[in-house]
Specification:
424 residues, globular, 9-stranded mixed beta sheet
Length: 424
Amino acid sequence: MMKKEMIAMLLAGGQGSRLGVLTAKVAKPAVAFGGKYRIIDFPLSNCINSGIDTVGVLTQYQPLRLNTHIGIGIPWDLDRNVGGVSILPPYEKSSNSEWYTGTANAIYQNLDYMEQYNPDYVLILSGDHIYKMDYEVMLDFHKANKADVTIAAMPVPIEEASRFGIVVTDSDSKISEFEEKPEHPSSNLASMGIYIFSWPVLKDALIRLKDQPNCDFGKHIIPYCHSKGDRLFAYEYNGYWKDVGTLSSYWEANMELIDIIPEFNLYEEFWKIYTNSANLPPQYISDRAVVDRCIISNGTEIYGEVHSSVLGAGVTVGEGSVIRDSIIMRDVEIGKNCVIEKTIIAENTKIGDNVTIGIGADVPNRMKPNIYSGGLATIGENSVVPSGVQIGKNTAISGVTAEEDYAGGVLASGETLIKAGERV
């Protein structure tokens, strides 16, 4: 079998429950980002730009959209005879179907896949972060230090450090301690969940810990390697990195793309972000439309006003409608004379005429205050919002809703409206 120096294993099984209705029907890595992309495009593009041509994508929760998006990997130049991109769902074992129970368990179930490339190194990635990173530079660091495991780490504010796995290093970047979400962190270097393992070390750890329930890299594999005296190093990263795990951080990361000088630039020639782009017609902006500081994808038609927003492909904005500070995903239809502020509208949703979204007081959401926050209104995919209604802040809507669902034509701030049933 052909040998690969380094292969990548991309963990894309996450449900991303803190994204609320956005991930009710789709895995977090498949959520749209920046108009034409999906979150998983960023780590996949990093692989290609770093010269890694063999990527196993481990899927689990609602993988259909992800599988369709990746296909055989053509946009990322990953349609290879040897290597390329492979979708690795949990196998149906004859005795019982083996669901992946933890990040390391998912990798363990794919030992055979990795074995066939006989790699020297395995790169472990997560599918839900927005960043650009040259993994080749990290590999050079791994080799130079004769490391067994290299963990990409970035400095975080010390008050946020307890949310992460924290590494403590000596002056040579060698890791002396590893603390998983410590209450009193002894450093502010946080693990980014990006690891390079020398293959024999990874294989040994996975086999040794195979019976560990919910086997996880941060909780089990890394501490095991550390305890047996493996050489662990921290590779410090100082670039842009966003965990878009909450609606507020997801909204912010999208809004940052339209800054005059974006901190994260989608337009750099030398580090392209590749995606699966359908062959759509160009955008159309009518003579009465007003558009400023926006990202607008192909096939979108604008007859109203759009300010400081990110629009996916195939969106229609009706005459007289005004959209501000919002994320509108692909194939959304917005009727006439709507006012939409600070709203996230997921794919294939229909908004009637004279609808106002994002008004009223900033009242916490009653059902899930920790998810629907930041003053945002969030509407899940394939939803319908009837004409003439008003929707407040920190709200969530999903499904085909009708006038009678809105008492007095209003969904007040902090309320949630989730209707079962599919729109045909």
